[in-house]
């Protein structure tokens, strides 16, 4: 009896072509989307610096940039507009990447630093410094940085029971946010009107006090944290598949998770220390980046989206109403609230709302 030799099954030519076309489209999207976002950041940066209540021509911009003194214009460009635009870009990148790390790591679109209490920790610490010790400027930024780190450490330790679970960390963080908000409200009711108004300006998230010193400190933090985030991004993709799958890929789950939390907290804390708790940037950037990438978000994309949001929102806040400069946090808060409602509605519609 002759043995029947089975020929290996091969995919139809049409299916193979479709897979190759999908992979090619995915590779193109991974390159093209960040490139377009980077171009958008450059355009928004140029609009922010050159236009507005005081406009500059491109030749004047470069003449001032290379050292020529134009009375009035040099001060406005070099001491106001340019440092403000630089800090806006940097905090957008920091908040955007921090939010994307938390949302991906915890597999929860609500798990951004301003929802789970880290930004509130920075706010409470900064308000304590302003109200109780009369602090200002860099001291407030240092207090905010320390407060964010301490609250993040407390949230991590309290939510760690046999490993950090996403829902437990989010719930503990929301509890801390409520406590920190109550502390801020208590302190504001116990101080005089002038001090309370200073604290409120900081709490709204504002770029009004931007300076080159503050930009330099923020840049140093990002120079350390952004490469660390880039190195850990491959681990983050593994953790996104679940703890068991990540362990199967050889990832040391708890160590990798702790390292990612440290980097994300550092980015959020540094950005908050520079400009205050600018609302919803960390929350918005990740989901928008994921939509732009058709479900495959990267930290780079989220950071660029964050920069675009901050630059656009601060330009609108400074120029929307003649004679009135709205803090950037007011504009982003107005944008973020309806986005939060939309996200909750669409998440529940597809069964992700918990």
TrEMBL record:
Keyword field contains Phosphoprotein: no
Coiled-coil zones: none
Transmembrane segment boundaries: 31-55, 85-103, 115-133, 140-159, 165-188, 215-236, 256-285, 297-318, 324-345
Major location (coarse): membrane
Gene3D superfamilies to which the protein is assigned, alphabetical: ABC transporter involved in vitamin B12 uptake, BtuC (1.10.3470.10)
Entry membrane topology: Multi-pass membrane protein
UniProt subcellular location: Cell membrane
CDD domains to which the protein is assigned, alphabetical: TM_ABC_iron-siderophores_like
Record's keyword terms, sorted: Cell membrane, Membrane, Transmembrane, Transmembrane helix, Transport
InterPro entries xref list: ABC_BtuC-like (IPR037294), ABC_transptr_permease_BtuC (IPR000522)
Keyword Chloroplast: no
Similarity field: Belongs to the binding-protein-dependent transport system permease family. FecCD subfamily.
Protein name, per record: Iron chelate uptake ABC transporter family permease subunit
